[in-house]
Amino acid sequence: MTATTKDQPALRLAGVTKSFGPIEVLQGLNLDISPGERHAVIGPNGAGKSTLFNLISGMFEPSAGDISLHGKSIAGLSPHRINRAGLARSFQITNIFHRLSVFENLRIGVLARHGVRFGLFRPVAKMRMVNEETADVLARVGLASRRDDLAGDLSYSEQRALEIGMTLTTGADVILLDEPTAGMSREETAQAVELIRSVTEGKTLLMVEHDMSVVFSLCDRVSVLVYGNILATDIPKRISENHGVQEAYLGEEAA
Ligand SMILES: Nc1ncnc2c1ncn2[C@@H]1O[C@H](COP(=O)(O)OP(=O)(O)OP(=O)(O)O)[C@@H](O)[C@H]1O
Predict the structure, then answer these.
(1) CATH code of the domain containing 229
(2) Domain ABC transporter: where (predicted)?
(3) Does any domain span residue 233?
(4) Tens digits of per-residue pLDDT, 154-181?
(5) Most buried by CB count within 10 Å: which residue of 39, 140, 142, 187?
(6) Residue 255 confidence (pLDDT)
(7) Domain of 18, in residue numbers
(8) What is the pLDDT of residues 216-236, one digit of tens each?
(9) Do residues 76 and 112 both lie within one domain?
(10) Are 116 and 146 contained in the same domain?
(11) DSSP alpha helix (H) spans, the chain
């Protein structure tokens, strides 16, 4: 008998390899992330973090190995199908519609989730539900007071909050965040950490994050990616004490 999806890791990498021509950028990664876990991937520039996120979210296809979501293979599926399967990714590069309002940006995701087309006539009851769900996400990411402002007029950290909100509108339970606090002040970072903690409650989070204080305060476990290999996976405290990691990465960061 096969195990039920509840017993499966939320996300599993099994021998995931990616080559660009002769260069093997990811070299057979194995990693299980449990449902509800918050997991960080850290590593020096060029280690393969973006490539890994591109594989998981369907932008690239693995050269070998498998990626599964709740026990079902998603390797090689389109980003859209992976999203429908329950995984959403927020990008390092801002991915919002600057000339739409904050509310409209969020509503696009909710509409897409419910399969409502952008036609002239929409069922009233369905639109009410869409608007209520949108308002819920708006409040959860702390942007209720900015509801009708253009997304392009938001501050940088508010735009990042909006992007996180857009991942929530899809209803995904596995969220990928790419450097969510990059470019933020210390105060903005602290707010972003609290926001991420609250909106990912009960969900599975995989994030690329360079700021170790963010990793320490938010993540259950950390994987260190160096030259396309996972050097170590452990709780943040043990990662920071790991001599191999310090030499390969943390030492370099501190230098
Ligand atoms: N489309 C591509 N074609 C060829 N090589 C690529 C491609 N994408 C990435 N690479 C190479 O793969 C390696 C890993 O790159 P990747 O961007 O995944 O690293 P990273 O850990 O995200 O780095 P950074 O922190 O600088 O964003 C690099 O050597 C990069 O040059």
Answers:
(1) 3.40.50.300
(2) 11-252
(3) yes
(4) 999 999 999 999 999 988 999 999 999 9
(5) 39
(6) 43
(7) 7-86+174-185+203-255
(8) 999 999 999 999 999 999 999
(9) no
(10) yes
(11) 49-56, 79-84, 102-114, 124-140, 156-169, 186-199, 212-218, 236-241, 243-245, 251-254
**What percent of the chain stands above pLDDT 70?**
91
The residue contributing the CA closest to ligand 1 atom 7 is 20
Kindly state whether residues 181 and 65 are assigned to the same domain.
yes
Structure-model confidence comparison of residues 41 and 3, the more confident one: 41
CB of 47 sitting under 6 A from ligand 1? yes
Sign of CA dihedral 119, 125, 130, 135: positive
Q: Ligand 1: which residue has its CA nearest to atom 30?
A: 46
Distance 50 CA to ligand 1 centre (A): 7
Q: Indicate the number of domains in the chain.
A: 2
- Per-residue pLDDT, 254: 46
**Beta carbon of 45 within 6 Å of any ligand 1 atom:** yes
4 ligand 1 Cβ < 6 A? no
Q: Whose CA is nearest to atom 8 of ligand 1?
A: 51
Closest CA to 221 of 239, 209, 204: 239
